[in-house]
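hey so i finally got around to running the thing on that chain from the lab meeting. sorry it took forever, my laptop kept dying and i had to restart like 3 times. anyway pasting the input first so we r on the same page abt which one it is
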Amino acid sequence: MRRALAMLLVLVTLCTGITAGNEYPADITRIVEKILGEETKINIQSDKIPSKAEIEQLNIYVNPVTKIVKALKARGLSDGEIIEILERYNLGWDPKTGAAWREFKKPSTKEMSFLKPLRVPNKNSASISQTSDQANQVMEVVPDNVYRGINTNLRPSEMRLEPNGTVQHVITTHVGRKLVGEDYWTEAGVVRWLVDGEPTEMYIFTYDNDEGQWKWHGTTNSSAFTNYLIYVTDQVDAWGYIYNIWINGEWVRSGHLWYRENNIDQANEVWTDTGSYTDDYGVAKHDDPSIYIQDYAVWWDDNVNTDWWHSPDPCPVKEYHKLEESSWAYWTWI
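ok and heres what got predicted. didnt touch it at all, straight out
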């Protein structure tokens, strides 16, 4: 009987390539690291509109996690085993939808417990009627069914916080659209919030409201510009059109949106528990934005129908916009 069990374990190992104790054969490591080694940064040129050939590369892009999953499934590994291997490389994957991401420098579990939920800015919200509600200053394309992505640069302000003033601050870019009255979106930007009355670092984040929510991609400061690129591809499956997000040219996230063409905005959002807000030092700036339409890109300039709005009115977040060289520069502050 013992001999039979031993033979069975040997057969399982040979068939799956997995050894006891979740130690994996060396060729599994080689497969993963080869795919990761082949991943290259995309070429971001803030002073130049990308060519159609460059945009087509965004359109057909397949992220490294999807490639790794396919390769490891071919080796017979289970979903759980694949997830465990991916986590060793700070990668993640949702077996249900295929969403994928790369994270590093995540907030602690305690820190994340203090985060207030995100909502798409609502132009029709006339006033703050409850504590912990959000106020927004927004630059938005019109209409919401033309553009399929954005490439922009963001430098945050100091995002000052205090218990009796601003308790959470988000400076971000949204891409998404309503379906049957419900908002579905992804976004990328910077968030800072209070934990036991003390401010966190300025975390670079991405967010998808129905597919993984918060993911984390390092930190930044009030003097640094970060490039964010969100692009919705032609690739579609049961969960919608696949989008990808790159930060400073490096892929960090893939997920789904129900539409290929979406609403796009740039926003500065603040939360309070008291109805008062904290004066911020410095000014946030979204700079050199270009937006994707069909198979090409255009500068986000005065040729693009744009709405600047805020909620509530009066709004604690102020704005100023001006054409600089090729596109709008958008400053916001408290």
